[in-house]
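Appendix B. Raw example, untouched.
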Amino acid sequence: MRLLIADDHALFRDSLRSLLEAHGHEVVAEAEDGEEALRLTAARKPEIALMDLAMPGMGGLEATRRLVAEQPETKVVVLTGSTDDEDLFEALKAGAVGYVEKNLQAESFLRLLEEAAAGHPALTPELSRKVLKAFAERDKPGGAEWRDPDALTDRELEVLTLMTEGVTSNRQLARRLEVSENTVKFHVRNILDKLHLHNRAQAVSHALRHKLVDPDEG
């Protein structure tokens, strides 16, 4: 199996490369950020790109979305330290075929890679249950958790609420939500796309005008 590793921690990349090569796989490229991952994927054509989410510059979510669109022959498996369910769902929405947490045992990790290479979802049983539950709830019209495809998620509404309270910079939002700035950018972009708006000021005005959020909740 030919793989690319995208992670900004050199020691982690070294350890992961050693593990993969010890089991007969070939690491054809290593990237420190999303932009480098895109460039190296185009040049080296790996079968699988192992993508961290929290990287400087272009993060893993944006890189995944672009890689899936530009290099569809390469499958993306997110390999992350994040245990945030929202990151899981956003990664899958971006086109990743798998989501693997970094604390997974080596044997399970390698088995999931084989699943991804064979065209199957690379998810642990626990994460698979979360995804199936989310789909089940989504398909219940009128259910408490049901939303149409263009509706904002709970996390996006949380971001929008903070923005109406004056917390608008990526750094401030990331600190309040305890996520990376790249994750914040991803949520803000989704908000703007779903509301068909162009900037954050419009989003705040739209949210207050249409009462999408309660400005007194915070």
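End of appendix B.
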